Amino acid sequence: MENYFRRQIELWGLEKQKLLAEKEILIVGAGGLGSSLAFALGSIGLRKITIVDFDEVAIHNIHRQIAFKLEHEGKKKADIVRDTIQARSNWTEIESYTYKFETFLETIQNRKFDIVFDATDNFETRKEIDSYSKQTNTPWVYGSVEEFYGQVCLFEKSSFQSFQTAKHKPGGVATPIVMMVASFQANLGLKYLLGDEVERDILYLLSFDSSGKFQIQHFKMPI
Q1: Residue 81 clears pLDDT 70, i.e. is over it
Q2: DSSP notation for 37-71
Q3: Nearest residue to 122 (alpha-carbon basis) of 55, 62, 208, 77
Q4: In degrees to the nearest 10, what's the CA dihedral of 117, 123, 125, 128?
Q5: Given phi > 0 = left and psi -120 to 50 = alpha, else beta, which region is 53?
């Protein structure tokens, strides 16, 4: 075990590595953000990762959803991500559910996670995640991406209800910004799981300004 995780043990030490081995996370969504989150967190030594997504791989998904190959078209995303990530590490159990999130909650009864990662693409499921989070006192990491913009927040006490959720037609998206947002989500969640200092209830906005300069803005969410 120590040889497999050698480089990250050099970063945070053996005791924190053992702490990760006690943690269980939930990733809701197995598409663009979900694939990247699974790659980022799937081989760091967590006890268990549960992935929920009812959708199937479509041909237009593959260019930006890094877990999938052309041969996966028509197959369940959650199952493919499970198999892909499980093949990279023997130290973490990967479990998949091919349900909608609402149905998933009905199946797990009182099961508890250490943190939830949002990898969805719709407001209604995020509201359900936020409701579950508040009911179970579980923090969750919101992430969204569109065009060359991203948003990330580690929700603990603030509510997703603060967001304006009017329907709009989403813009296009490419792989690099998806991976960037997912990496930001993964780092926030990882700091939390390690017990390190990390800001909660701060909304981060990632974007390029009119001159092409990359910028990160952050705002305190109302509590």
Answers
A1: yes
A2: HHHHHTTS--SEEEEE---B--GGGTTT-TT--GG
A3: 55
A4: 90
A5: beta
Distance CA 134, CA 112 (A): 12
Please, what are the domains in the chain?
Answer: 6-220 (3.40.50.720)
Q: Diameter of the chain by CA atoms? A: 50
Q: What is the pLDDT of residue 209?
A: 83
Q: Is the pLDDT of residue 62 over 80?
A: yes
pTM of full prediction above 0.85: yes
* Exposed / middle / buried, residue 188 (Cβ in 10 Å: 0-12, 13-18, 19+): buried
Higher-confidence residue: 168 or 5?
5
For 31-44, how does the pLDDT look when each residue is reduced to its tens digit (9 = 90+)? 999 999 999 999 99
The angle formed by the CA atoms of residues 49, 53 and 59, to the nearest 5 degrees, is 120
